[in-house]
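Below is a filled-in request sheet from our internal design queue. Each sheet records the structural input a requester submitted and the sequence that came back. We keep these sheets so that new team members can see what a complete request looks like end to end.

REQUESTER: design group, bay 2
PRIORITY: normal
MODE: inverse folding
CHAIN LENGTH: 104
BACKBONE (tokenized):
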């Protein structure tokens, strides 16, 4: 199992809306995440600076990354774009973190 951690950036006035949208995640998006291998997925928000830490586990990173090409994922990005910093294709700006320690 591969572990993924990323930092993303929420707009300062949108913290509650970001949390609300994830609390009400579309069933089809939730199903898609599981179909593409995501497990143990959590997102943490730092309300002091708007950064999130997303952590998930996947069997294969390439398979998981293919989720970006699906209509459902792209619609989710469009839905989330008003509340977070995004790239020109509306994907979230996400900085990958390098794992430097893991306690098994």
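RETURNED SEQUENCE:
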């Amino acid at each position: 199992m591969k572990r993924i951690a990323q930092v993303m950036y929420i707009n300062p006035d949108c913290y509650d809306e970001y949390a609300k949208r994830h609390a009400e995640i579309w069933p089809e998006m939730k199903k898609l995440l599981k179909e593409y291998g995501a497990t143990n997925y959590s997102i943490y928000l730092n309300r002091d600076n708007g950064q999130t830490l997303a952590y998930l586990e996947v069997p294969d990173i390439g398979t998981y990354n293919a989720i970006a090409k699906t209509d459902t994922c792209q619609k989710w990005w469009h839905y989330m774009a008003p509340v977070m910093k995004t790239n020109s294709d509306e994907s979230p700006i996400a900085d990958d973190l390098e794992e430097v320690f893991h306690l098994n």
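SHEET NOTES:
- The beta strands are 2-9, 39-46, 51-58, 94-96.
- The chain is about 30% helix and 25% strand.
FILED BY: M.R.
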